[in-house]
Amino acid sequence: MIPGPRATIDLQALTHNLQISRKHTPHSKQLAVIKANAYGHGLLQVAEALKDADALAVARLPEAIQLRESGIDKTIVLLEGVITKDELKQAQEYELELVVHHQDQLALLEQLTGEALIIWLKVDSGMHRLGILPEDTKHIYARLDKCQSVKQIRLMTHLANADDRNDSYTDRQCDQFKQAIAGLNGETSIANSAGIVGWPDSHADWARPGIMLYGASPLMGVTANELELKPVMTLTSNLIAVNAYRKGDAIGYGSSWICPEDMQVGVVAIGYGDGYPRHAQSGTPVLIKDQKCETVGRVSMDMLCVDLRHCPAAKVGDAVTLWGKDLPVEDISNKAGTISYELFCRLTSRVEFVYQDS
Ligand SMILES: *Cc1c(COP(=O)(O)O)cnc(C)c1O
Asked: Which residue segment(s) compose the domain that 340 sits in?
């Protein structure tokens, strides 16, 4: 049987990429970000493979509970924190560390009894999404410091533009953060992947690598390969038809691509119903037996078409790589007007996941 859409996950590449993060930030602990099902790679498998991480971070409580109930006893940080008393109780019960980004969360902590928690106080240094104002930092810190329910305070912020190494906004954010926390005790954290590889000033006590762990580049205009990152996910499927068409024949919905000459067109069993981006334009690369070919016409729900002029020997059943090893995911996300993060996260349950440890 032809295997169909499959994501092969290389767990050694994952641990290699964590080492690359350490290499950039030798004085920082690694808070490995595995939110959103480990960027679509599989929460538990990734958590288990990242034994060398100092701690794990997820966005929401259910993700953390899933990890705990599967026996993961490593430190887990909830990046969005909690907003209700019930959630706070659960976070305490599951021994999670919490981000506090709003005064309302502080009020909940002030009423909490029982086991004390480690809190990551998030300062908004310019992202303007989550975080307390820089000028409120000292008094909120002082209130947290008085809470019976808080045993340690860490200080963090998040960078908005670090993927662009020419954007000095990142320097301003680092300065803003450092000013806001001047004189306060506690370990600090600023850098996401882009900060780790692009902005030494952001390294601090804890680095928070996300996308780089999965082997995609966090910087605009710099390839993953140049950063020595290895792709973790390789998405493949198979050719299910090879057809000959005439010059002038239109391919697929909307007849958006016209054969410029008599030619063969292959049909690959993968489409937006599997998570392959429908917006990938004609000309998006795929690999058939190490030969680069290009998509033609619109991506359908279950299929996409490819120009076989560079791959005359292609036949039904041949494996096709959509991204991953030998085909950087950025080459596809650029053609689809999105980022690698979204492509990884959007694979659907139709895709079979296979985990490899060597
Ligand atoms: C997702 C996230 C990260 C990781 O970002 P990458 O760009 O994937 O490295 C780090 N910190 C916070 C707060 C995040 O939400």
From this structure: 233-356
User: What is residue 248's three-state secondary structure?
Assistant: coil
Options 85, 253, 289, 315, the catalytic residue: 253
pLDDT of residue 340: 98
Give the pLDDT score at 3.
Answer: 77
159 CB under 6 A from ligand 1?
no
pLDDT of residue 2: 72
* Distance (Å, whole) CA 73 – CA 356: 23
Residue 109 is part of a domain; what is its CATH number?
3.20.20.10
Confirm whether 3 is domain-assigned.
no
Number of separate domains in the chain: 2
Residue type for position 124: D
> What does the DSSP assignment read for 29-80?
EEEEE-HHHHHHT-HHHHHHH-TTSSEEEESSHHHHHHHHHTT--S-EEETT
Q: Are residues 166 and 280 in the same domain?
A: no
Our answer to whether residue 253 is catalytic in this structure is yes
**Looking at the predicted structure, is the pLDDT value of residue 1 above 90?**
no
Interval 186-199 mean pLDDT: 98
Q: What is the CATH classification number for the domain harbouring 350? A: 2.40.37.10
Domain end, chosen from 186, 217, 248, is at 217
Q: Rg of the Cα trace of the chain?
A: 23
Catalytic residue among 35, 230, 325, 335: 35
> 117 CA distance to ligand 1 centroid (A)?
22
Going by pLDDT thresholds of 50, 70 and 90, the confidence category of residue 308 is very high
Instruction: Reply yes or no on whether the pLDDT at 227 is more than 90.
Output: yes
CA 32 to centroid of ligand 1, rounded, Å: 9
Asked if 35 is an active-site residue, the reply is yes
Å from CA of 42 to ligand 1 middle: 17
